[in-house]
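Section: Multi-chain targets

For targets with more than one molecule, the full set of components is provided together so that the structure can be written out for the assembly as a whole rather than chain by chain. Components appear in the order listed by the source. The example entry contains two components.
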Amino acid sequence: MSEEKQQVSRRTFLNYTLTGLGGFMAAGMLVPMLRMAVDPVLQTSGGGDFTNVGLAVDDITTEPQRVDWKIDQVDGWYESEVSKSAWVFKNDKNEIVAFSPVCKHLGCVVSWEGNEDYPNEFFCPCHNGRYYKDGTNVPHTPPLAPLDEYDQKIENGMLFLGKVRTREEAKPREEA
Amino acid sequence: MLQKIYDWIDDRIDITPIWRDIADHEVPEHVNPAHHFSAFVYCFGGLTFFVVVIQILSGMFLTMYYVPDIENAWKSVYYLQTEVAHGQIVRGMHHWGASVVVVMLLLHTMRVFFQGAYKKPRELNWMVGVLIFFVMLGLGFTGYLLPWDNKAYFATQVGLEIAEQVPFIGTHLKTLLAGDADIVGAQTLTRFFAIHVFFLPAALFGLLAVHFILIRRQGIAGPL
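Its structure, encoded as tokens over all components, is:
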């Protein structure tokens, strides 16, 4: 028993106490600052704001067409209009597909039949990245993943597009 | 583990003597509140420095959100204050800390004055201390404008007109501070921001270093 007592001397005990108290005070000071700094990481992303892109469902053909529209973006204290675009068409199963034009290689913008050597494909001019019509990347070209898809819904015969999702997390179309 | 890292570094660059010079020194009996409770007055200087550290840290974090631009300054402060988690606390620390620093500084100055601790050979350190006091007031003045609200704007207007009263160079001094002869605006805000976060802190660090080195060199003044 007396040997165990020796292990923590009065001085060691006071050192521990002082370190603990100092650490507690430092934490009280630093925690609010760190919490504030990491706030953007902890913000829940507001999902599913759909925008009318100005394209009637009847006008969607099997040929991909580019649609451009604007959304109101709130960036902290700054609000602005941001341009968005998509490649929209009906696939073999007569489903509407809206691809994001952002190349999965390094983020350039792809075009449908953007190169006459590669008909029936999406083409990225930056590094000759290619995608088949269903969005999957052509093997042995730079992109490593299929094109992203927009969430979509149809209201009053018009196409509404929402958030961009990767192929894996893309969810079935919402009918409204 | 920590001990091993310390030993590894110490083995190579011999930091123990440096550490000893900085932290390991006798506290004379007359400044130790454990012996004489009234010796707590010797803590004012250290407490001032402690609050300065809080100001530096909270200020660094505030610049993650703040924009020194007349269109966005107020909006970014409002956003930080209302939307960012704990933003209100961190800005509160900086806001109230600014006043606490001046109070602590004054208490420290009064202790040194009434104890006559500024007398030979410590006159130089007194002068450095007075410079630190001016730098602190400058930090308070320039920081006051940054939220770009009405109070900030008109306080700065008044401050600039005070600067204008300086004989001979007043008008130029005001223009130099405000960035424009007539307008308190865009250029004033960026200038005050630059002075607040770069120029004055740099001056403050230099002066604090001299202040502390002199204390260590000359020791604390003897008992009354």
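Residues 128 and 210 of chain B are 8 Å apart (CA to CA).
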